[in-house]
Amino acid sequence: MPHEVLLDVSDLPPPEPLEQTLDAAEALKPGQYLRMLHRRDPCMLFGNLDNNHFNYFQRPGLTSAVEVFIWRENDTEAETAVQLIIGEAIDTSR
Fold it and tell me: Does CATH place domain 4-86 in 3.30.110.40?
């Protein structure tokens, strides 16, 4: 099973990026993570993720302004896959 689900919301008008990202996160299966590409900082997203028991990591994107990796809390397989991509440990304490 592929670990990554890619979602590019860079060209969508608000509130579609937020809505599509939350829908895609809810659809994640165990071991999967979402890689969301956006043209700007999705600040409205993070509180929603925290409230719905998701972890995330944000960094500047390679092909977009921002990349956000999202996975379910306690999904160590997905978290490990993200750590391998970003090359560092992830602090999920917020």
Answer: yes
